[in-house]
Amino acid sequence: MNGAADQGARDRAWMLQAILLGGQATRAVRPNPRVGCVVVQGDQVVGAGFHAIVGGPHAEAVALAQAGALAQGATAYVTLEPCNHWGRTPPCAQALIQAGVARVVIGVRDPHAAAAGGVDTLRAAGVEVETGVLPEAAGDLADVFLTGIRHKRAFVQHKIAVTADGQVAAQDGTTRWITGPEARQLVHGMRAQADAVLIGSGTALADNPRLDCRELIAPPPQLPLRVVLDRRLQLPLGSHLAQTDTQGTLVITDDPKHDNSVHAGHLRAQGVEVLCLPPSTDWLAGVLRMLHERGLHHVLCEAGPTLGTALWRAQLVDRLDVVMAPTLLGSGTPWLQPLGIGTLSAARALRWSAVQQVGSDVWLTARPA
Question: For every residue of the chain, which 3-state class applies, written as one string?
């Protein structure tokens, strides 16, 4: 292996460590991105850190504090371009310069207008900078943040539980339980990391779900908001979602007559928020923009085929999680309805980003390519 190739392999290996470190961050970091950083002197990590909570020290600051004087002449591996502005904390680009770091390797550039520019600042100070190392994995780490900056809407993670032949329900409509208890517990863990859980009225009426985190030994201090797209405002007063003592529910309709109805008044009396968003050609995108403006940056969609397909048609899904059970039905309800694609060359391209076995099920994660 020549010198350049050897250096590239080392860069990728250290960047992977920074990505894995950044993955320890929880929803407490939002609206900031998940970021990891390792500071390497020779072949030794002398500092490591991740951004843990909004308002707290950034990943670079944590790693530099740990490295101390050993940061002089070292290489810093950062998953996202170091910030270049004063926010709640000082600019990380300046911190790297002041620590004497000789080289900075970056996964992805920061599209945030105020925070970007760290690369230029570092280079102007004589620091060697390498960008675009493991950019897909580094971008996946900061996916919620990047979606919000680029598209001004909430990040959408679509989770489905299917049989091996892609069915979400049998011919008689039964859906429970397709997957095993281990997978269901992981789904509750995913809910704990989401700001909101989204379903349509069909799922609300057919399944009467709770959309809580009851499978977890230690539920999060703040449960995700339950959001129901219910254009005809059919959510029953006796449903689990209408019980809001421990968890909030937002029901969205598009018709003022439902918003002002007696039923809406009863729902509000039980603590349910009822909101009317007028119909438009990009109604679903408008819902996601509204949620993002409310500080709900990560939406976990657990909807049925109707809403799920609508999101895919509008190209609003950022991550797909398929939990596949080792069972066959041969018929039933497929998880996705026709997208209007008539030829293979027009197929929606995805890239697999993770595959794992969970109990007897297989968990597949994909993202739009």
Answer: CCHHHHHHHHHHHHHHHHHHHHCCCCHHHCCCCCCEEEEEECCEEEEEEECCCCCCCCHHHHHHHHHHHHHCCCEEEEEECCCCCCCCCCCHHHHHHHCCCCEEEEEECCCCCCCCCHHHHHHHCCCEEECCCCHHHHHHHCHHHHHHHHHCCCEEEEEEEECCCCEEECCCCCCCCCCCHHHHHHHHHHHHHCCEEEEEHHHHHHHCCCCCCCCCCCCCCCCCEEEEECCCCCCCCCCHHHCCCCCCEEEEECCHHHHCCHHHHHHHHCCCEEEECCCCCCHHHHHHHHHHHCCCCEEEECCCHHHHHHHHHCCCCCEEEEEECCCCCCCCEECCCCCCCCCHHHCCCEEEEEEEEECCEEEEEEEEC
pTM summary value: 0.94
Using one digit for the tens of pLDDT, what is the confidence trace for 205-249? 999 999 999 999 888 888 999 999 999 999 999 999 999 999 999
Whole-angstrom Cα Rg for the chain: 23
Compute φ and ψ for 231, nearest 5 degrees: -65, -30
Which of 95, 98, 53 has the alpha carbon at shortest distance from 78?
95
| pLDDT digits 0-9 by tens, 40-87 | 999 999 999 999 999 999 999 999 999 999 999 999 999 999 998 777
Torsion from C-alpha of 216, 296, 208, 161, nearest 10 degrees: -70
Torsion of CA 349, 355, 359, 361, to 10 degrees: 20
Per the CB < 8 A criterion, the answer to whether 160 and 168 are in contact is yes
Q: Residue 274 corresponds to which tokens in the numbers above?
A: 């009822």
User: Which positions are catalytic?
Assistant: 60
